[in-house]
């Protein structure tokens, strides 16, 4: 059956490509794919985008060496990989891990070093591959596969070559869950360093303090409490008291204080004392090479409430 056989004037996403389709057909398919997406028909949308890319490659094969055609093909491939990732994230957030895995694997396949057409635009290919690997890692973290998550996230960073603060935040969270707490401290502090003192998105700085606090829990309880306080204050001031992120930070700080039997009054005293003796919270942060000794507060007390994910 030809892909041009239509139902009600539209293309059938399940029909096979015959090789007789034209560039104009590919454009029409992409328009129909956008309409499918608006109506929540995500898989049908992806099928049409895939067919449209295949038709573009076939129809422009004879002129594929020309930069204008290569650019057109790469843009079509980039749109497809972008939608693959968007739908993959949607699937894993709905706990449809099988579908999400299939989509992310396809995204990885499309961004292999020798995969046409994105091999002709290596910077874009590497960026899209990094995004796909990072999303795969976020899914594995959600599934509780922390070692796999860390592997995907590291591959993502290696692929893009970017020192993204968001990437370091993701990595620090996974390292904490793997009990690689000293590594998690370094990653969270690297995120802070990359964000700078006045980041464009201040909520990321709140997350960095939160991740640092969680990593410090078994290493330095006093520092952990201070970082929780800073994270909560930043979150409330930047994204509001009722934001999901703010509430999660508050939950984790409460869980930490309950585990260590710290009252609100005591926590305020700790912060005052810390600031009085050490100055600003940033001035006395240990270097990446400084080791932490385990706090005696953590040697006999176990958490009674599990940390909530952000």
Offer a quick outline of the entry:
By secondary structure, this protein is mainly α.
What is the helix fraction of residues, given as a range? 55-70%
Structural class: mainly alpha
Q: Mean of the pLDDT scores? A: 84
Query: What portion of residues belong to β-strands?
Result: under 5%
Side-by-side strand order of the widest sheet? 1-2
> Count the helices. How many?
12
Largest pleated sheet: 2 strands, antiparallel
Run of helices and strands: EEHHHHHHHHHHHH
Oligomeric organization of the protein chains: single chain
The geometry reads as: elongated
E-strand count: 2
Low-confidence residue ranges: 1-8, 272-309
Q: Could you tell me the radius of gyration in angstroms?
A: 24 Å
Instruction: For the record, give the distance between the C-alpha atoms at the N and C termini, rounded to a whole number.
Output: 48 Å
Describe this structure in words.
The chain has 12 helices and 2 strands. The protein is mainly α and 310 residues long. Among the domains are: 1-59, no CATH class; 196-286 and 293-310, no CATH class. Helix 8 (181-195) runs antiparallel to helix 9 and helix 9 runs antiparallel to helix 10 (221-238). Mean pLDDT is 84; it is low at 1-8 and 272-309. Residues 275-288 have a biased composition (Basic and acidic residues). Residues 289-302 have a biased composition (Polar residues). Residues 275-310 are annotated as: Disordered.
List the helices and strands and how they pair.
Elements: E1 6-7, E2 10-11, H1 23-38, H2 42-59, H3 67-93, H4 97-110, H5 122-143, H6 146-160, H7 165-177, H8 181-195, H9 202-216, H10 221-238, H11 244-259, H12 264-278
Antiparallel strand pairs: 1-2
Helix pairs in contact: 1-2, 2-3, 3-4, 3-5, 4-5, 5-6, 6-7, 7-8, 7-9, 8-9, 9-10, 10-11, 10-12
């Amino acid at each position: 059956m030809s892909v041009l056989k239509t139902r009600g004037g539209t293309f059938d996403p399940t029909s096979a490509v015959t090789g007789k389709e034209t560039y104009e057909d590919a454009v029409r398919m992409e328009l129909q794919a956008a309409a499918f997406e608006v109506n929540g028909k995500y898989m049908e949308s992806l099928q049409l985008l895939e067919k449209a890319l295949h038709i573009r490659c076939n129809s422009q094969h004879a002129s594929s060496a020309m930069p204008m055609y290569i650019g057109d093909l790469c843009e079509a491939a980039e749109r497809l990989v972008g939608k693959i990732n968007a739908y993959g994230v949607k699937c894993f957030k709905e706990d449809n891990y099988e579908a999400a895995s299939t989509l992310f694997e396809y995204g990885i396949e499309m961004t292999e070093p020798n995969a046409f057409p994105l091999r002709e635009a290596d910077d874009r290919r590497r960026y899209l591959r990094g995004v796909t690997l990072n999303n795969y890692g976020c899914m594995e973290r959600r599934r509780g596969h922390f070692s796999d998550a860390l592997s995907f996230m590291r591959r993502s960073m290696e692929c893009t070559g970017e020192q993204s603060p968001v990437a370091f935040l993701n990595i620090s969270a996974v390292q904490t869950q793997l009990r690689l707490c000293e590594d998690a401290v370094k990653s969270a502090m690297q995120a802070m360093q990359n964000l700078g003192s006045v980041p464009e998105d201040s909520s990321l700085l709140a997350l960095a303090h939160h991740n640092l606090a969680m990593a410090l829990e078994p290493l330095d309880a006093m520092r952990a409490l201070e970082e929780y306080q800073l994270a909560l204050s930043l979150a409330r001031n930047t994204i509001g008291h009722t934001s999901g992120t703010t509430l999660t930070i508050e939950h984790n700080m409460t869980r930490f204080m309950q585990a260590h039997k710290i009252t609100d009054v005591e926590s305020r005293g700790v912060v005052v004392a810390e600031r009085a003796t050490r100055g600003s919270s940033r001035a006395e942060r240990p270097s990446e090479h400084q080791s932490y000794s385990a706090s005696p507060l953590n040697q006999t007390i176990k958490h009674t409430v599990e940390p909530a994910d952000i």
